[in-house]
């Protein structure tokens, strides 16, 4: 009884959007594993979508995965990295995070249909991992066999590992490309290059999922714009020139 209570308490601590994704990613493969649904009806076949209106495939193709060790790894990645994003960069901004996931989902489905990739669960998860890693580039990560490296290399390590184990990296590459596209359009291009932010969360999402509170905290805060940093440095340099001294911190002797 205590074990079930502990699991229930742990489940409730998962942020809402991540909890929904985690639950769907856990349940959909199990329905196929126990014969409730056929795996062939869950993957991204374009012809049934077009001619038989089986539009659920567009969603189930990013949720279905054969039950096994990699299935558990995917659930761990969703819990770990989606939770970190939702409680940091998108903290108190459910509409923005829903739009982020929808954008990643749509782009991965488009790429998957063009490249004949039928199961895109890995791709969507790696897109989320890529965004978090770009927002936390200098964070030290641990991987199997005691490997340690900065977070910016994590998606590429996963790609390389899967290439060695499975002999293919196309799915992972799709996830990285889509994740980079979102990161570039939302963070890199507007902040570092002063460009227009082309991706804007639709207003109707704010009506249904209003911001809970302002500000973000913890891992994954948005990077400081380069132009803002340069302006602050120039202002500081002018201050040093006006007073003409090296300056001392209080308490220095």
Tell me what the structure shows.
The structure is a single chain. This protein has about 250 residues and is an all-alpha fold. About 60% of the residues lie in helices and about 0% in strands. The chain has helices at about 1-15, 15-35, 45-50, 55-60, 70-85, 95-115, 120-135, 155-165, 170-190, 205-210, 225-245; strands at about 140, 150. A two-stranded antiparallel sheet has the order 1-2. Helix 2 packs antiparallel against helix 5 (about 70-85) and helix 6 (about 95-115) crosses helix 9. The protein is globular. Mean pLDDT is about 85; it is low at about 215-220 and about 225-253.
Concise overview:
The chain has helices spanning 2-13, 16-33, 46-51, 57-60, 69-86, 94-115, 121-135, 154-166, 170-192, 203-208, 226-243, and strands at residues 140-142, 148-150.
